[in-house]
Amino acid sequence: MKTETIQLAGDVPGNHIELRVLRFAGKDEKAVSAYLQSSLHGSELPGQAALHFLLPMLEKAGREGRIAGDITIVPQANPVGSAQWLSHQHLGRFEFFSSGNFNRSFPLLDTFDTSGLVPLDGPKSLAERLKAQLLRLALPHDIVLDLHCDDESENYLYIHQAFLPEMYDLAAALGSTAILSWNSTADAAFEEACAHPVLQLPEGKRDMTRRAVTTVEFRGLNDVDIATGKADAEGLYRFLVHRGVVSDPAVTLTVDFKGPVTPLENVEMVRAPQGGMILFHVNIGDEVAAGAKLVTVVTVPGDPSGDITLTAPQAGRILTRRSHRYTRRGDDLLKLLGSKRSEQARPGSLEA
């Protein structure tokens, strides 16, 4: 394994960030290559834990000559977000200066040529230069896995419809319970930026048996522990072996994903009509009927007449819940996977 440290100057004199890049050279130039990154949202750590335990497995494979395709890993993809703390709270999703989501507004390239991206020392903000550098690292690879997590959640994947069903193997390897399929979000998340040049190719030249581009949602923010990190690392390793990036005769994968594949427009984003205390009636993974009680917002503590109980717009599965218990008007409270288009469906990503 080779370690590279890429330095990006800050937006004012006297400060900079360092991007740590770990590379494994494959011995077969025709083998599938892979790029994995975590913590693009700086406070999301389950993916970082998974990579922490995956790296020793890959180092062992490297020593034994079993790395077939090139592998690039960036365990901490956003040092800016990792350093953003306010009043003892880690706030790594939005950039402090612009309030922009770190996983939005990536450049959408029509080809895999990254020469036109802003250079490391270009006249753009640090956040923009960081996004360009992450694309330069990722786009040369056949597989791109962007590891995230939700608030309180099952393990699930975002996958563009064109990459299905070939990517059911990743869902099986990771034990994902659901796939959220998308066609066009128009928000230019990292996943979309990495899928975009693939989708510009004629269908006959895409070779989707080699490719995989996804956002992995490794459960919730607090699901960070040794056992979970090791299990997730083993799932990533199984997938890399299955795709031929790593050779390991002792590892096999049965592609038996049976979870729902839900278009984004079928996801019910249940939002708070008023601010107040949140009392959930359901847990993640629950199957609910249309009209079932989901959550009560207590707007006037001590006065039940101020309670607002929200019910399921349609039958489906509870995929996520928010981790906070005091909410603002309009905040997302949970995701429900439905079988039909949501009446509240709108273009773009599901959440800010």
The beta-strand count equals: 20
Tally of alpha and pi helices: 6
Succession of helices and strands? EEEHEHEEHEEEHEHEHEEEEEEEEE
The CATH topology annotation of the largest domain reads as: Aminopeptidase
State the secondary-structure class: alpha+beta
Amino- and carboxy-terminal Cα gap: 37 Å
Could you describe the largest sheet, including whether it forms a barrel? 9 strands, mixed
Overall CATH architecture of the largest domain: 3-Layer(aba) Sandwich
In what range is the share of β-strand residues?
Answer: 25-35%
The dominant shape is globular
State the CATH superfamily name of the largest domain. Answer: Zn peptidases
Mean pLDDT: 97
Low-confidence stretches: none
| Approximate helicity band | 10-25%
In the CATH scheme, the class of the largest domain would be Alpha Beta
Count of the domains:
2
Strand order of the largest sheet: 1-2-4-3-7-11-9-10-12
Rg = 21 Å
Describe the structure.
InterPro entries: AstE_AspA_cat, N-alpha-Ac-DABA_deacetylase. Residues 33-192 form the Succinylglutamate desuccinylase/Aspartoacylase catalytic domain. Keywords: Hydrolase, Metal-binding, Zinc. The structure is a single chain. With 352 residues, this protein is of the alpha+beta class. The chain folds into two domains: 2-259, Aminopeptidase; 265-338, Beta Barrel (OB fold (Dihydrolipoamide Acetyltransferase, E2P)). It contains six helices and 20 strands. The longest helix is centred in the first third of the chain and has 18 residues, at 46-63.
Provide key terms for this protein.
OB fold (Dihydrolipoamide Acetyltransferase, E2P); 352 residues; Aminopeptidase; 9-stranded mixed sheet
